[in-house]
Amino acid sequence: MGGSAVVVGGGIGGPAAAIGLRRIGWEVxxxxxAAVPADAGAGISLHANGLRALDVLGVGPAVRAAAPVHxxxxxxxxxxxxxxxxxxxxxxxxxxxRRHPRAVLHELLRTALPSGCLVTRAEVAFVDRSxxxxxxxxxxxxxxxxxxxxxxxxxxxxxxxxxxxRHPGPAYSGSTVVRAVTERPVDLATDFExxxxxxxxxxxxxxTDGRAEWHAVLNSPPGVRYSDALDAxxxxxxxxxxxxxxxxxxxxxxxxxxxxxxxxxTPVPAFTAGRIVLLGDAAHAMTxxxxxxxxxxxxxxxxxxAVLATGPTVESALTRYxxxxxxxxxxxxxxxxxxxxMGQQLTHPVAVAVRNTALRLAPSRTTVHAVLQHADWxxxxxxxxxRTRRSPLNSRSSTCSWNVAPRCRPTGPAGSRPRP
Length: 420
What we know:
By secondary structure, this protein is α/β, with parallel strands linked by helices. Helix content is 31%, strand content 21%. The protein contains 12 helices and 17 strands. The protein is globular and about 65 Å long.
């Protein structure tokens, strides 16, 4: 089964879904409202399940090559600490992930798509399902028609709101996050190190070039912003253990990102509606305390390609996707919420002391397992009969937008197309 698809959202899940669909012979256009990803200045850590999903999509080797080793060590060095620098837990976690600046992963995914497949500065506010067997997507000065629409437009998804008008939508988690990537290398003793205080966490992810991503997660009312965010972080974390002050000192003030953390506390009743499918945060936005948000979106993309490769119809394939992905993502989201409440969000002194004692007494492998157990996922395989001959990493010479598939071209005025 093949066809045409429009993917709404150019973050991580959207391009990954497009790669998977093209791999099984679909023509795909990705529509992104921004010129560049809004969180390109941050970092990302991909657990084993995310890497396995990328393998299914054919881009796993490129992602591994971009972060081949953990700064020269065979296993990532992991530590959970307190503000005074004392260990809560420490271990070598094994070959579980790769760490990148998020912009690198975005670039790898976009490079795997043909030139012209991604349309930026084009916003999709709603879709028209009135045409039998087809979906119409109005853009600024054109209309796309497709056999499938993938709504990967994030936690504030407009398409989810259209499809599920009674769903309450995202809720504020109680946490806000400030993050940045250092301008220069920093001497770090660990590859990944969260530090838990009362109602706050400061963590870093080491990159292979010596720089690092750091993130500060704080209990906060929604909407609070700082006139000088870096100065505010120095006042909040400047007395915490090394290398936290060094990470802040290696950061330019104009590079900080600040986002409130929202999640879908109420699970959506379905990931599909007709020929429209929700993917990534649009379907199951969760708190970041297990580091599984992007990984779950990549799993979504791999499963979507697999079910469409083998399903007799789009509708039957999407039914299978919904049946496989909703229980899995709901389980991970349910686990992420208490991980935050017992970690970064905990404030009561007695509760904090009990937690710290429990962590100190527990075997380090137990602590790591509690975080990494959700990376234990077996990916689906793509039927080789349905794969395109080209690897997505070698397909930039082909085209994938307005002139490749009659079923995916604009139906507006002759020669019209969305504004670049």
